[in-house]
Amino acid sequence: MRLTISLGYASDAGRRERNEDFCGAVTPEDDQLNTKGILLAVADGVSGSGGGREAAECTVRNVLNDYYATPDTWEVAHALDKVLTAANRWLLSQGAQRRELHGMASTLSLVLLRGNRYFLAHVGDTRVYRLRDRHLEQLTTDHVWDRPDMHHVLKRAVGLDQHLLMDYAEGGVCAQDAFVLVSDGVWEVLGDKTMQEILVLHADPQEAARALVAAALARNGRDNATALVARVDQVGMENWRDIVASAHHLPLPERLKPGRVIDDFEVLELLHESRATLLYKVRHRVSGQLVVLKTLQSSLQQDAGSGEALLAEEWLGKRIISHYFTQVLPLPAGSRHFLYYAMTFHAGGTLQQQLDGGRRFSVAEIAQIGIRLAKGLGAVHRLDVIHRDIKPANLHAGDDGKLRILDFGVALHANGLNNQMINPGTPSFMAPELFAGEGASPQADLYAAGVTLYQLLTRKYPYGEIEPFQHPRFGEPVPPTRYRPDIPQWLESIILKAVAKDRKQRFETAEEMLLMLERGERQPILPPPRPPLAERNPLLLWQGIAITSIIINLLLLYFYLVA
């Protein structure tokens, strides 16, 4: 079920020489409608400044263009905040460079409709209303001064200050809801009651927008008047449900043997098998390209959640484009008759396979692995994606010399089906705060990266191996030089910082860890500070104090008796 709306708008300069209002909308189709939604905007340039109209128009155009260029994995508020901050900086820079545009600023009210939700972003005194069941409700707050003689003076606007503070809100959408975005030249003249009467009278959004503007001008409105009306004709489904709806009707293939043909692919061999998934090496029968098919065990045929999760993983993989990851391949519409997805094949093996084969990694190799791993993690973290299962088994060393991060099946991101899973992953690579019930963060991925480098060097774990049923207590990590004396101090310091028990002592970002690895011994970091005994073992501290106190008292008693 797709989200559909009817849209109408009107704008008039009124008695002003120039119309400094501007409105716009983007109504995408297909995948962008599901992932990004429909964006509506009204802006009112600050009158009296040199570039009021320019500020309003540029703000709306920039936001409508830039929002759809943000990663699909970003949350709506985060994406809007990024593009609005950029628009604010652009207005400030233009006002500083061109004297005639000094002081250019604009109000802005945005409504994003996606699936069955709406999202608001607002600053200034333009307004957003919602008409539901013939009742008009104001959804925004005016950012003006309270004093009667200053009620037209804005406290906040785009381009007014270096720090832009927007109001954000969200809520549910019902069929026949009407969202109304108006400038102060409409709402201030008409008032809420009259606006409600006009909107109820005119069901067509275009007629309603024209009627609102015409009524404002007919009542001797002295300001520009702009109205944008959007009526929701049909509510969409939740974003991810539209994307993975095909999971409900595609059957799982039976276990495939070499030589078997599935759709456009010929099976060559089984690459990997887990409790839930199967990976096959296949060849495209037309192009001859070697491909990997990922599917589920046939026993999960009735498990709709697993099927949805597999296609959600495919959706995410299509949006992570980098040579540090396998690339998910687009499949022609109608060519897939079974539940699977296809990704590029790369000769080589995982680092875990190399460990199991008895390989001993050198310090130089570990440094290069760390650099490539940090670059890959930096790429996904910039997309607001947390992998949550970094370990040697999920790192592929290709024959082409590239390191690739595998398996985003439990990744955490804004549209993820796995967001409700409580810290999935491999226990020995999970950060201490995850065992305490805290949510995953990029630093948890960096912790797992540190444990991975530690294990590749020593075949041990910094805090010992942790079984799934355990609730471990973390003391101090064992320095890797205890097992490998040839490890240089600079590399040991980086690994110990990455696996620090307190995440405040770890690297803040993958880029920081990358910088330290690239600098190496040329600019080494200091080893993590050893915490005081009171933090490491408070019980031992108080036992020592008690024993010392007893000894002192016994000595004092002895000297007293002797004297």
Structure explained in plain terms:
- A hairpin with a 4-residue loop joins strand 17 and strand 18 (403-405).
- The protein has 15 helices and 18 strands.
- It has 563 residues and is of the alpha+beta class.
- The chain is globular.
- The N and C termini lie far apart (96 Å).
List the helices and strands and how they pair.
Layout: E1 4-12, E2 21-26, H1 30-35, E3 38-44, H2 52-67, H3 76-97, E4 108-114, E5 117-123, E6 127-132, E7 135-138, E8 167-172, E9 178-182, H4 184-201, H5 205-218, E10 225-234, H6 239-243, E11 261-262, E12 265-273, E13 277-284, E14 290-296, H7 304-319, E15 341-344, E16 348-350, H8 351-356, H9 363-381, E17 395-398, E18 403-405, H10 432-435, H11 442-458, H12 489-498, H13 510-519, H14 533-536, H15 538-562
Antiparallel strand pairs: 1-10, 2-3, 3-4, 4-5, 5-8, 6-7, 6-9, 9-10, 11-12, 12-13, 13-14, 14-15, 16-17, 17-18
Q: Could you name the ranges where pLDDT drops below 50 across 5 or more consecutive residues?
A: none
> What would you call the shape?
globular
Helix proportion range: 25-40%
Structural domain tally: 3
In the CATH scheme, the class of the largest domain would be: Alpha Beta
Condensed summary:
This protein has 15 helices and 18 strands.
Which descriptors apply to this entry?
563 residues; alpha+beta; Transferase(Phosphotransferase), domain 1; five-stranded antiparallel beta sheet; 19% strand
